[in-house]
Design brief:
The chain is an all-beta fold. The protein is about 0% helix and about 50% strand. Strands 2, 4, 5, 6, 9, 10 and 11 form a seven-stranded mixed beta sheet that branches. A four-stranded antiparallel beta sheet has the order 1-3-8-7, with no helix packed on it. A hairpin with a 6-residue loop joins strand 4 and strand 5.
């Protein structure tokens, strides 16, 4: 059974940091792009960051550039999202997902495996 399991979420004050992890099992995702998405209450799920299979290409939405860093360890089948200088507007459930392609995209329909999500809450 293929699974993506996120961890590392929690409650943090504005300006703080969290590191999310996404551990994959059941198959290797070393040839898949990976992405992080988030969904805040009452809002649609949005793409946050993505990384290509070979780790060379990364992409971020403007609101998290210079604050978030996506990385991956293909040997451990794990993807990370380092989040610094967190803001209350970053509060959401964060999901990792595996792309159908070797690259990541901003479109959720390009991803065919999803984790269950981890809650990130940033207090002001």
């Amino acid at each position: 059974q293929v699974q993506l399991v996120e961890s590392g979420g929690g409650l943090v004050q504005a300006g703080g940091s969290l590191r999310l992890s996404c551990a994959a099992s059941g198959r290797s995702f070393s040839t898949n792009g990976m992405g992080w998405f988030r969904q805040a209450p009452g809002k649609e799920r949005e793409f946050v960051a993505g990384i290509s299979a070979n780790t060379i290409s990364t992409y971020y939405i403007d609101s998290v550039k210079s604050r978030f860093t996506i990385s991956r360890d293909n040997a451990k089948n794990t993807v990370f999202l380092q989040m610094n200088s967190l803001k209350p507007e970053d509060t959401a459930v964060y999901y990792c997902a595996a792309s159908k392609y070797i690259y990541s995209t901003i479109k959720s329909y390009d991803y065919n495996y999803w984790g269950q999500g981890t809650q990130v809450t940033v207090s002001s």
